[in-house]
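Q: We require from you a single protein entry containing the residue sequence and its fold in token form, and nothing else.
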Amino acid sequence: MYFIRQEHLFSLQDLLNLEPTQRYTGIFEGINIMTLLKTVSKKVCECAPQSLHYSAMIYSLFARILEGIPTIKLLVRRLKSDVLFRLDCGFSFSNRVSSEASFSRLICKIKSSNILDEINHALVLQAIGEGYIDGNHIAIDATHVEARGVIRLHFR
């Protein structure tokens, strides 16, 4: 009885090369997350390793909005199951995907600080300086906000 060992058709790296792996680079390059990283990063000793990959977590929160993922639970599930999505968000093969609790703590830190308002103000000033908007009428559009409540019927 003869055993024939068949070679692989292609490796995992060849498969990754077939797909466009940098889907969000154009968007992520335009967003400066250094101020967010300064706000949420832990102050640790230089010799201690940082267990959470904060920049990848922040990028995955942006990608969550772009992909239309409604909850953090589904985001974590997608990061664990989709290798390309994980790489696009900045996680590597060796990085462990953060838990829902870690994402929740990150969101609480961001919400408790005033950093998003400062980033928004800086972006508006940059857009005015580059001539994209004139600055006469600026408003935040909240028309896409959907309520998750029960529809109440009014009886007469």
